[in-house]
Amino acid sequence: MAKRISMPSYIKIAVDVAYRISIGEFREGERISGRSTLVSIYNVSPETIRRAVALLKDTEVVEVTEKSGIIIRSKEKAKEFLGKFKTKSDFNNLKVDTFNLIKERKLIDSKIEENIDKLIEYSSSVRSNGFIATFESKVENGSIIVGNSIGEINFWHNTKATIVGIKRGEEMFLSPGPYFVIKEEDIIVYVGSDEVLETVEKYIKSSK
C-alpha cells in the first residue's frame, strides 16, 4: 500500500515560520532570529534552516541580507504560501489515498470474481439434485428490460432469481449494482432453483 506523503523537515520549519507571520507573531519589517539561532530553536542542522529560509525567500515571504539577516517581507505572502502548500499537500495525499482505494477495489473485485466462479462451479455440480443453480439468459431485441437498470426491473420480485453477473461482449460485470443498465445482447447470469429458468426466460422475452 502506498504511503501518505511525509513532509520534509525544512518545509515544516518554513510552514511554521510562515504561520507565525500570518498570525502576527512576527511582523512585517521585523528582523527574526538568524540562521544560527533558528538552528537551536528547531533543533535541526544549519542546512535544513538554510533550505527553509531559501523557500520563504523564493516565495517573497522574507528577504535575506548579509547585514540585516532575515527580514519579514510580507504577511500576505505568508498566507499565500500556507494556502498553496496546504493545497499541494492535500492533493498529494489525496492521490495516495485514491491509489490505495483503487488497489483495494481491485483486490475486492478479484475476490468477488473468485467467489462467483466457485458459486457457478458448485451450483452447476448440484443442479441435478434440485439445489440452487446458475443459469444464463440472453436479452433479445425489444425485451421489456432493455434500457432499464437492475433496480428498476425488480428482477427477484418478478422471477425469484438473483442476478450475480452480466456478460457484455468479452466483459463480465460481477455483482452489478442497482444502477447498472441492461442493454440488448447482454447475457444475464443468475442463480435460483430449477424452476426460475422458465420464469426468467418468459419475463425477459416480454415485449415493451
Task: Explain this structure.
The protein has 7 helices and 7 strands, in the order H-E-H-H-E-E-H-E-H-H-E-E-E-H. The chain is α+β, with helices and mostly antiparallel strands and 208 residues long. It has 2 domains: 9-94, Arc Repressor Mutant, subunit A, CATH 1.10.10.10; 132-204, Alpha-Beta Plaits. The strands form 2 sheets. The protein has a 4-stranded antiparallel β-sheet with strand order 4-7-5-6, sandwiched between helices. Strands 1-3-2 form a 3-stranded antiparallel β-sheet. Helix 1 (9-22) packs across helix 4.
Brief write-up:
The protein has 208 residues and is of the alpha+beta class. It contains seven helices and seven strands; from the N terminus they run αβααββαβααβββα. The protein is 50% helix and 16% strand.
